[in-house]
Amino acid sequence: MEQRLKKVLSQLSIGPADWVGLRYHRENSRVREVRDGHPETNRSSERSGVMVEWMSDGQFGYAATPDLGEASLLSAALRARTQAQAAARRALYRFGTAQRPPSVGRYGSQVKSPLSTLSDADYFEMLVALTQRMRTSDAVITAHAQLEHVAVETCYVSSNGAHFEQDLSLVTVAMEAVGQKNGVVQKRSNHGLSAYSYQGGGEFILRNTLNEQADKVARHLHELLDADECPSETTHLVLAPDQMMLQIHESIGHPLELDRILGDERNYAGSSFVKLEDFGQLQYGSELLNVTFDPSVAHEFASYAFDDVGQPAKREYLIEKGLLKRGLGSLESQARAGVPGVANQRASSWNRPPIDRMANINVEPGTISFEKMIAGIERGVYMESNKSWSIDDYRNKFQFGCEYAQLIENGKLTRVLRNPNYRGVTAEFWKKLVAVGDANTLGVFGTPYCGKGEPNQSIRVGHASPVCAFADVEVFGGAQ
Amino acid sequence: MNHPTNHGVAGPMNGFSEELLSENFSNFFEGFFAGLAKGEHARVSLAAENTHFLRMSRGAVRQNGVVQDAQLQIQFLTDAGSTTEITLPFVCSGDALKAFVAGTLDTARRQMTGVPADPYANKPSTRSTSRVAHAGKILAPEEAVDALLGQQKPGDDLVGIYAGGKTISALADSAGMQHWFSSDSFFVDYSLWLKNGRAIKSSYAGRQWQQADYLESLNQARANLELMSREPRVLKPGNYRVFLAPSATSELLGMFSWGALAEGSIQRNESPFCALRRGEKSFSSKFSLNENFALGFAPRFSDDGELAPECISLFENGRFVQALVSARTQKEFGVPSNGVGSERLRTPDMATGDLPLSEAFKALGTGLYLSDLHYLNWSDAIQGRVTGMTRYGCLWVENGVPVGPIVDMRFDETLFRCFGSELADVTCEAHVIPETTTYVRRALGGARVPGMLVNNFQFTL
């Protein structure tokens, strides 16, 4: 592909003040899904194409096509130029080649065990067995298991000498069971909606690991069917890593996106309570809070070497000892905002332009063990696995629900609680962080479904976190 | 995961000709169906678009580009019950197409090897044909910037997106079903902002761009923005009488597609509407809802090869008539299909009531006028309880007079109260809410909904 893109580039008449980049993106996915022992999905898909970006008079225009023939790409380039020229008259900001660095390199996911060693029959046999494993009694109404593997290949060349290629291997396994007993209906999954998402290969679908997850889903589901409702009170809240993932995503990741702060997302995803002058000044959380943008974690879902405009990606502190240091903003947003950012201008596919996104946003581990954390709490609620999420368009007033909870009484985990929810305000919530678990409590998760942008884009993100405890949080249960 | 592709072969995308796409689509499915062995069946669908996306921020161009796309989806089934599905870019024609057909058929057969039978898969079985082409007048890509941003007034802070062009959806199956739906259409989904962070949301959509209509939409939004300059009212959590404008009603109706109205979910006891089915809960006699393809927003056929009737009555004067039932659910649970495919609303049409929209403030009296809602999710799905936020032009109203904006509030309320016990009135006018979703591709569809007056709406934060 590199040669074809370079050949097209060489045939274009690019003025001295203009710039052109071609980004090839090919995504092959394979989804296998079983419900109650029967196949429900057996799908493969390929999405591939090229986006040509043309910068003229400081404005980027783009044209995207799935037709990879030279004539098609040349035609797309001219359409991109037309769009750049049309937009330059009323451009929001005058960009330059500094926003498209001439990066050269290659990145590939670390795959310990290739997925190709298993046949379709093997995969379906495994998924059927997992659904059967979750149906441990007549109280289980339905059980579902899904495995998705995605291979992403990108190749980028530009008129100022950029050439990089990245190959990703992505695995997601989702399991869920629904049960009913005495009029109570509950769901339990392996870590919430598609949170078991990683870069890698067969090492993430080891039979023993998935069997353990299926057994835990079934065990917890039965506990939930006999559980009390989560009480309504203001108390200590302890969040497992698979709920911290959502908490980080919604109330740290999104509000720190510079394009939201600059106002670009006000018509769709929303704005932010964070202001540009807050960087370097705002105490975002307690001194225990340390948050990084880290695209270098080997198997985390959104690791990469370059963002989709060629900025080399590296680990950066966003929040250190509770102090806000850096935003989630690309070279374009950094130029507009005048604050430090990261390499996060990403596109969901070949047919969408790159915008400011999260990648891996992680809370760094603290020093306290899980046992000591719980032992230090007289009363509280421990929650696992997200099932409901809602937050305002400034990323302040939130309400989140979890699948599974346990009461904490006198330093011990006691009764299981169903329908646990909590609500709060971001600007106050992170200041209530009173304990951060050590590295032994760390969990690494991800999701394929972060939505944003006009036109809309759904992108993959990763979140790692230890168990964390918060004081004085409003918790409550389901409707009566 | 090696798919048969034709990279490098000049195809129909270059000029995006509907005629050429149609011809190539026919050549593909005719060739594919001709290659089927005895006991093999297939459905082929096409989703294509040629769209101009113009993203605007602070009254200027943020991003500007064009996207051509064409994707084929092939469902392959056998009498033995094996099934598979393949999605591929559709970029070839001529001799390359013949090789593409053969390669795709090989992939389908290979992908089914050793896969257990799907007992609920549905083979193609009916013959039907249709061809709908909605021609329109869309802005040329090079003209759109000036048309959208050329007549702003000083101080306008416009944010949003224009999407315009042709979308195509087509389906053919080996039993003889052949459908084609194409539409030239556009939408401008935008908001106007004040320096105090308050805004009015609006949209202009259709098939025939009329500059005067767009400017009228902008002027109406500017007029509505005046109230938003006042000091926002901070309200305490609690119960308030509210008027839900059509766009807010549409957001609440959207939750019906989160598993609630799906017959499969009801059969698996995962839906809040199980309680309606059992007669334990009810909706108000003021509430009626149809899935109405006669509105022309979306094709009656689905990618799953089902053909819905022109109109499906779902709720009639509060009575739960039927859920959305796919052929798959019919096979699994024995409930007759109503041809909807995905069991999600694509073109909902909520019945109007008696309250003139112009009297909404007066009828509300003292309470909240909710223009828009944001980020809805179940807070207790089985109980039909929904949480979400107010957004944009929501107002505090006293004695029938709008006072000013509010600081946005979180609500937590059940669908059974909103559309049932607390539903006081429904407006006699309904608004069309265009579908503006553009994940992967520009979606087809839209809703026609009235406003609603609701008592004791619960706010929690």
Question: What do you see in this structure?
Answer:
The complex is a heterodimer of chains A (480) and B (461). Chain A has 480 residues and is α+β, with helices and mostly antiparallel strands. Chain A is built from nine helices and 24 strands. Chain A has two domains: 2-226, PmbA/TldD fold, CATH 3.30.2290; 229-476, no CATH class. Chain A has helices spanning 2-10, 70-88, 120-134, 207-225, 241-253, 258-262, 331-337, 370-375, 426-429; strands spanning 19-35, 38-56, 59-65, 104-108, 140-158, 163-181, 184-189, 197-199, 228-229, 233-239, 291-293, 316-320, 323-324, 345-346, 355-356, 361-363, 379-391, 397-409, 412-418, 421-425, 433-436, 443-452, 457-465, 468-476. In chain A, the strands form five sheets. In chain A, strands 1, 2, 3, 4, 5, 6, 7 and 8 form an eight-stranded mixed β-sheet that branches. A five-stranded mixed β-barrel of chain A has the order 10-17-18-20-24. A four-stranded antiparallel β-sheet of chain A has the order 13-12-11-16, with helices on one face. With 461 residues, chain B is α+β, with helices and mostly antiparallel strands. Chain B has two domains: 18-227, PmbA/TldD fold, CATH 3.30.2290.10; 230-459, no CATH class. Chain B has ten helices and 20 strands. In chain B, helix 1 packs across helix 2 (95-112). The radius of gyration of chain B is 24 Å and the shape is globular. Classes of the chains: A alpha+beta (480), B alpha+beta (461). Strand 2 of chain A pairs parallel with strand 3 (83-89) of chain B, so a sheet runs across the interface.
Number of domains of chain A: 2
From the structure provided, what is the oligomeric state, counting identical versus distinct chains? heterodimer
* Rg of chain B, Cα atoms, Å: 24 Å
| N-to-C span of chain A | 59 Å
Helix-and-strand structural type of chain B: alpha+beta
Give a quick account of the main beta sheet of chain B: strands, pairing sense, barrel closure.
7 strands, mixed
Largest interface: A-B, 91 and 96 residues
